[in-house]
Amino acid sequence: MTDPTRTDTAFVPETAEEPRMPGHETDLDKKPQWQPRYPGSGRLKGKTALVTGADSGIGRAVAVLFAREGANVAIAYLEEHDDARITREACEAEGAEVLLSAGDLGDPDHCQGLVDAVIDKFGQLDVLVNNAGEQHPDEDVTEITAQQLQRTFQTNIFSQFYLVQAARPLLKKGAAIVNCTSVTMYKGAPILLDYSATKGAITAFTRSLSENLIEDGIRVNAVAPGPIWTPLNPMGGQPPENMDDFGEDTPMGRPGQPNEVAPAFLFLACEDSSYMSGQVLHPNGGIIVNG
Predict the structure, then answer these.
(1) Which of 28, 41, 121, 202 has a CA-to-CA distance to 149 between 20 and 30 Å?
(2) What pTM, to 2 d.p., does this model score?
């Protein structure tokens, strides 16, 4: 008899624990601030960027900022079509050509198809931003099912491998990869055990991939946000009782906004950071992590 708490499949679909995740930004009463705060200066002019999880939150802020800086943008997301349309319209308003792609990045075939679609539309891929992620709070490590564990790793880190594998033959000298890790990798999170573990894997992947690709002129870096106001946490990524004071335990005493994180991704994606690879930036409200 099959044990429903175990899994031996190569791909785990969405579980019953995540009916609202990653969540619709349009459903939030308190809207995240994603709009770019400064005029563009052409730092990504002529580039094509693929941004995952770009329907809302940090991903949306990154996609629109990249568009303002001159890039054409491929917006990858799971299923939040209403949010993705808003991101697309905002990018197009900045003058960018946009590709929308819905689907599960934990599926390697989907990742290959996504990269193929980017090349079909734009003919190039210069910047890959691996931002998509999910998290599930659990008080006890024994509550984490095999399905949830694999699903979290599948979305958060396996997808990054799949996309890099698909994109690698197309990335030329001067290309940049920017991964999204987390402050939880450095300071821990007692109710986000599987999520934090994936973020540790992403940081190690970033450093190792940097060493692997640096001789080919491809830079790999990461951003480790602190508590940021996006749909992920209020839509199930945190217990409801944690949301009233979410982010207030940072030295700045508040959660960050997506448009306070996006410039870190821009810096690592453009030539301003031409002497940086294998590094992590920390927009986290002043939390000292020494990493």
Answers:
(1) 28
(2) 0.91
Residue 56 tokens read as 């809302």
What pairs with residue 220 in β-bridges? 177
Provide the annotated active-site residues. 195
Of residues 209, 200, 168, 182, the one with CA closest to residue 264: 182
Per-residue pLDDT tens listing for the chain (291 residues): 445 455 556 788 876 655 455 566 656 566 787 799 999 999 999 999 999 999 999 999 999 999 999 999 999 999 999 999 999 999 999 999 999 999 999 999 999 999 999 999 999 999 999 999 998 989 999 999 999 999 999 999 999 999 999 999 999 999 999 999 999 999 999 999 999 999 999 999 999 999 999 999 999 999 999 999 886 665 445 555 666 677 789 999 999 999 999 999 999 999 999 999 999 999 999 999 986
Half-sphere exposure of residue 90, counting CA atoms within 13 Å on the CB side?
23
| 135, 232 Cβ separation under 8 angstroms | yes
CA dihedral 227, 284, 66, 45 (to 10 degrees): -170
Classify burial at 117, counting beta carbons within 10 Å of its beta carbon; exposed 0-12, middle 13-18, buried 19 or more: middle
